[in-house]
Amino acid sequence: MRADSETFFRDLLEAAGPSGDEREAAAVWRKYASGFADVHGDALGSCYATVNPDGKRSVAVLGHIDEIGLVVTHIDDEGYLWFRGVGGWVAAVLVAQRVRILAKDGPITGVVGQKAPHLTDQEERDKPLKVDQLWIDIGAADGDDARSRVQVGDLAVLEVPVVDLVGSRIASRAVDNRAGAFVAAEAARLYAEKPGTWKLVGVGSVGEETSFSGAYTSAFGLDPHAALIIDVTHTSDQPNVPKRKIGEIKLGGGPVIERGSGVHPVMFDLIGEVAKAEGIPVQFGASSGSTGTDADAVKLSRAGIRCGVVSVPNRYMHSPNEIVDLDDLEAVAALIAAVSRRLDDLPAIS
Predict the structure, then answer these.
(1) Whether 65 contacts 22, CB under 8 Å
(2) What are phi and psi of 289, to 5 degrees?
(3) At what angle do helices 326-341 and 265-278 cross, to 10 degrees?
(4) Backbone φ and ψ of 77, nearest 5°
(5) Confidence tier at 117 by pLDDT (50, 70, 90)
(6) What is the DSSP letter of 93?
(7) Secondary structure (DSSP) of 244-277
(8) What is the pLDDT of residue 76?
(9) What beta strand segments (E) does the chain contain?
(10) Domains along the chain?
(11) Phi, psi of 181, rounded to the nearest 5 degrees
(12) Would you say the C-alpha torsion 253, 254, 255, 258 has a positive or negative sign?
């Protein structure tokens, strides 16, 4: 991967951006995209990068920029912070994690607390852990001390640095979906170097993990003729994940083209044709209805928008250590740029 592109991706991963407050991650995205595109934002915080603005038709390339997080619900008199999840969490992955609370006066570090195993009986240990049994400890002396620093409604993310693994693989809490946001900008950069006939608008959309809010508003505001949605998808190259359930999808295997009832057939046909022409190895995922991505909102905008979905393989999704292969990420960006140059091949709507 190009050095500047990799630095951009790593900066996106380090930035905080839970659903509802994506400002820090959006600032990173906009700074990078301003080097090759006309950049602006909207009322909800989604960000846009437009290239080839005089194109005869337009395509939107969306990757949601938010991540799952936590929200403080109560601060007790002992100074402990109680919380619930923003987006989908399994309680077990939160135990003993460090967190970054996005407080008004600046980030505050805390740790997720749980009763020590020495203090639990067998009956407690046998019960499934729930998020509401956990708390955040910032080291406050008491409730007044904690309330002087943190407020109910403050959002938080896990405080987990990016980790380099073997080869071109890295782990981060925020691969879902800074990977897609990266591609939305990087594909715009590649398209700007060799534009087709269409205007391309890269979108870092907000709120996907909770409501698809950015997808709804971006699609309505842009009213594109077609859309390409970039998200992450599960892999089956790990223990206890059956291929019969999600297909044969692996890290390093290349972009995953979603097919089935959740995406438009002319879009996945074109994406597949372009991948073959460009010599980009791809994998396939199946959708039986909802794709679980921004496409579910975008395709319903106005009179309907034809959507394609291309995913980045992601191992251990919605955990502190999501693993992605940088080679897959680079290939997805290249594929999206190439597809965008071939959009005139789409059949007319009749």
Answers:
(1) yes
(2) 165, -100
(3) 110
(4) -70, -15
(5) confident
(6) G
(7) HHH-S--TTS--EEEEETTS-HHHHHHHHHHHHH
(8) 98
(9) 38-41, 47-51, 58-64, 69-75, 81-86, 98-103, 106-113, 135-137, 155-158, 163-164, 169-172, 199-205, 226-234, 256-260, 283-287, 306-314, 322-325
(10) 3-67+173-345 (3.40.630.10), 71-158 (2.40.30.40)
(11) -65, -40
(12) negative
Mean pLDDT along residues 209-231: 98
H or E segment and range at residue 105:
none
**Residue pointed to by tokens 């067998």:** 122
pLDDT of 289: 86
208 catalytic per annotation? yes
Residues 308-331 have a mean pLDDT of 98
Cα gap 173→157, rounded to integer Å: 9
Tokens of 267: 């879009």
- β partners of residue 203: 48, 62
Residues 29-47 as b or e (16 or more Cβ within 10 Å = b): bbebbeebbebebbeebbb
* pLDDT, tens digit (0-9, with 9 covering 90-100), for 142-199: 999 999 999 999 999 999 999 999 999 999 999 999 999 999 999 999 999 999 999 9
Q: How far is CA 162 from CA 9, 89, 212, 275, 322, in A?
A: 10, 20, 26, 30, 10
Q: Is the pLDDT of residue 70 over 90?
A: yes
The half-sphere exposure of 83 on its side-chain side, counting CA atoms within 13 A, is: 32
* Amino acid, single-letter form, for residue 31: K
Rounded to a whole number, what is the largest CA-CA distance in the chain?
A: 68
Mean pLDDT, the chain, integer? 96
Peptide bond before 52: cis, by omega within 30 degrees of 0?
A: no
What would the mean pLDDT of 273-283 be, rounded to a whole number?
Answer: 98
Q: Which is catalytic among the residues 22, 208, 258, 322?
A: 208
CA–CA–CA angle 327, 332, 336 (5° rounding): 150
How far apart are the C-alpha atoms of 47 and 29, rounded to whole Å? 8
